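Q: What would this chain look like folded?
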Amino acid sequence: MNDGKDITQISEPIRLVRESLWEEDNRFLKICRSLPGEIVIAVLLYFLLQRLLVPLIGSFAVNNVLYPLMGDSLRDYLVPIQAYCEIIMMAGLILYMRFAERRKFPAMGFIRKKALLKYLLGLIAGFVIFSIILLVSVGVTGGSIAFSGKLSPGMLLFALGGYMIQGMAEEVEARSYIFLSVSRKHKAYVGILVSGLLFGVIHLNNTGATAVSVLNTTLIGFAFCLMFMASESLWFIGAFHSIWNFAQGNIYGIAVSGNDAGDSLFAATLGGENTLLTGGAYGVEGNIITTIVVLALMAVTVAIMRRKNLRLKEGA
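A: My prediction, written as C-alpha cells:
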C-alpha cells in the first residue's frame, strides 16, 4: 500500500504493520478496526488479561502450588512472582495480534536485526536515565542512598527475570498492540497520543497517584512510543522499560508507580515532604524532576528521529 509515498522514511515496525494491513471483510470487522473500535478492544483486552486472568491464575498458582512447596518463605518472592505472571497478558496479546490482526512477529515490533544489541542498549539507557532522575531527586531533596545488603545475588537475578517479563509485557500492550494497531491506519502521532493517554489512564488507581504522576506516566508513554520508533525495535524499548522498573524497585528501593518495591540492593530516601519533589507514595515517577527529564528525553529522541529522517506525521 505504498500509494506513491516514500515508505523508507517510516519507522520499520510501522512500515511492517502497514504492509500486513487486513482486508475489511465485513461491517463488524470494519467497526472493530476503526480507531474507536481499537480503543474499545484494547480496554477490554486489558481488563480481561491484566485485571482478571493475571491475578486469577497468579493467585491459584501461589495458593495451590507454590505455598505448599515453599511455605512462609514464599512471602519474600511474592513481588517478583507478580511480575512473572505478566507473561499471561503478553501471551494473550501476542495471540490476539497473530490470529485476529494477522500480524507476524516483525509487524509486532519483534525485529530480529540486531535484536540482542538493541536489548542491551535498552538496558543501559534505561538504567542510566532513571539513575539520573533518582540522583538529582536525592540531591535536590537532601535525601540519601545507602547500601542495604538485604538482597542476595540469587534474589536479585530472580527479580530481574520478573521485570524482564513485566516490562516487555507492558510494551507488548502499549506499543506493540495499541500504538502499532492505531498507527497502521492513522498517522504515527495519533498512535502516540492514544497509546500514551491509555498508558496514563491505567495508572490512575495506583497507590499515591496524583495529577503530576498521571502527567508523568502519560509523558513516559509518549516517550516510549518515540523511542520505539527511533530504535525501530520492541527489544530496545522492552529492555528500557524492564530495567527502568527494576532499578526503581530492586536496585534503589523506590516504589514502582505506587507499588511496593520489595527488597533492594540500595535504600534510597528523599528528604522533605514536598511531594512535587519527592513524588510521595507513588515514587520518583511522581515528581517534577521526572517531568523535566522525560521532556528532555522526548526532545532528544525527536532529534534522533529527524536525523534518521523518520516522520511523525506519515499517514497510512
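Residues 7-307 form one domain.
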